[in-house]
Amino acid sequence: MILNNILDIIIILLILVSIVAMLATVIGFIRLPDELTKIHAAGVTGSFAVELVLIAGFVYFYRYLHVFELKFLLAIGFLFLAAPVSAHMISISAIIYNKHVYSKNNKDEAKKVIEDIEKLNNK
Questions:
Q1: Contact at 8 Å (CB) between 69 and 61?
Q2: Cβ proximity of 62 and 71 under 8 Å
Q3: CA dist., res. 87 & res. 90, Å (int)
Q4: Which residues fall within 8 angstroms of residue 30, CB to CB, at 6 or more apart?
Q5: What pLDDT, on the 0 to 100 scale, is given for residue 37?
Q6: pLDDT tens, N- to C-terminus, the chain (123 residues)
Q7: Can you give the pLDDT at residue 53?
Q8: Is 28 exposed, middle or buried (0-12, 13-18, 19+ CB in 10 A)?
Q9: Residue 38: its pLDDT value, please?
Q10: What is the spatial distance between Cα 46 and Cα 40, in angstroms, rounded to a whole number?
Q11: Cβ contacts of 53 within 8 Å, gap of 6 or more
């Protein structure tokens, strides 16, 4: 009986933390200045929030329906692997196409990345 209450509390906490992370994603996406920082906000906290919802769904199915859903675990694993890679590729494409990169010290920090990419392409 106590374990059932603990699992209910865990499900509620996972959903509440995911809601806070989703709100942080939305606020970060609105307030941050350029594409790279917006991608960071969406990529990190957004995938974290979705993973928490999937974990809560897994625990819910296991607790109430007595089903071990492998689909949730596969979705969590896929998201854990795919979200950082896709955010990285989008940010690299933004740098390659010379989007404005925000910098506090007004240096062109994307120039070094573009030079490295050109060196790799010329090999």
A1: yes
A2: no
A3: 5
A4: none
A5: 81
A6: 677 788 899 999 999 999 999 999 899 888 888 778 888 888 888 889 999 999 999 999 988 888 888 988 999 999 989 988 888 888 888 777 766 666 666 666 667 777 777 787 787
A7: 94
A8: middle
A9: 84
A10: 9
A11: 14, 15, 18
Per-residue HEC secondary structure of the chain comes to: CHHHHHHHHHHHHHHHHHHHHHHHHHHHHHHCCCHHHHHHHHHHHHHHHHHHHHHHHHHHHHHHHCCCCHHHHHHHHHHHHHHHHHHHHHHHHHHHCCCCCCCCCCCCCHHHHHHHHHHHHHC
Record the pTM. 0.74
In a 10 Å sphere around its CB, with 0-12 CB exposed, 13-18 middle and 19+ buried, how is residue 62 labelled?
middle
